[in-house]
Every structure is written in structure tokens, then in C-alpha cells.
Amino acid sequence: MTAETSQTLDRGLRVLKLLADTDHGLTVTELSNKLGVNRTVVYRLLATLEQHTLIRRDLGGRARVGLGVLRLGRQVHPLVREAALPALRSLAEDIGATAHLTLVDGSEALAVAVVEPTWTDYHVAYRAGFRHPLDRGAAGRAILAARQGLVPEPGYTLTHGELEAGACGAAAPLVGVTGVEGSVGVVMLSDSVPERVGPRVLDAAREVADALR
Description:
By secondary structure, the protein is an alpha+beta fold. The protein has helices spanning 7-20, 28-35, 39-51, 68-73, 76-95, 138-147, 197-212, and strands spanning 55-57, 63-65, 98-105, 108-115, 131-133, 157-160, 167-173, 182-189.
């Protein structure tokens, strides 16, 4: 802590982070021990966060993340999209294929940013807001591989015809970005992904990850 920071706000944010990392919630005593402060301080923090619907307490008194964080979360996609666009534009123009940033949304993969190349005669139409199962398509498979610690040796995932007949894709997961689970990829009309595409997608994913840190 420094003179310019707020100790109370710092503690409140630490409470939210602790609750976000558990599925079963935490008691006042558990939070008190983890924060190293007395129970009275924790009660006040929880009461304030609960007033803003950022946490909720069940009948047993365990605190959990509240629905209020969803309203804050809705503002994350535009910020992530803006940070990713330069790398996506460069990728789309370089490869001549539609580039996209995909994030996890529940059990689905959600395209939050899409850039189409400007110089090609034809390319795959792919729109922001497009959803598909995480276990189908390069974007989702790359995310699952990273989640399971099973990213292929090259660092990217290739697929063909899983989401659209005649289309193939390449995607690489975002690595080292706290709180963001996603991938960067391209989709193109081809029988197979050209050899240079995978490494280029991997570079773009690293660029986006750097922009988000």
C-alpha cells in the first residue's frame, strides 16, 4: 500500500478476488484469516459489497460473488475488442483471411471481434456475436486445450469443416492474461491451412495477450 491508495478499497477488491476463486463461497472467519484483518472489518466490507450487489450471502452465511459483477463484466468485451483490433487487422491483411478474437461465454465460444481482409476476392463471412460450442472449431478447441494444459506442440490448433463445410481454421489461445479466457484465429475457404498461417496466428495471439496485460 502507498499513500496514494485506499486501504478499504484494496481490501474490498481482495474480497472479490478471493470469492471469485472459489465455487462454494467463504465465511466471514475464512475471509478474516485470508485477509489478515478482524471479523468486524470483514462484516463492513461484505455489507458494502452486498449493497452494490457485488456479493451475496446464503442462508449459511457464506459469501459468494453477486450478480452485480455481470453488469461490470458486460463492459469488458468492448475494452478487449478495442485492444485486439490492431493485431487482428494485421493478421487478416497478412493472411488474406477473416481474423477473429473469441472469448469464453459460459459453455460457448463467442466471437467478440472480427476483421475481414480488404484485398481478397472472397473470404468467409464471420460476424461478431457468432457463437458455437467450445469443442467445435479451432477457436474453441484452442481455448479448451489451454484450459486443460494440452496445447499442441506448435502452440496452435487446426480444424477443417467443423463449423462450415469447406472452411478450415487456425487458432491460438491467449496465454498469461488474468481473467480472460480466449483465442485468436483465422477462418478461410480452403482444403487445408497453409503452413505459414499457424505461426502467424500464434504471433497475433501473443500480440493481443501483450495488449491486454
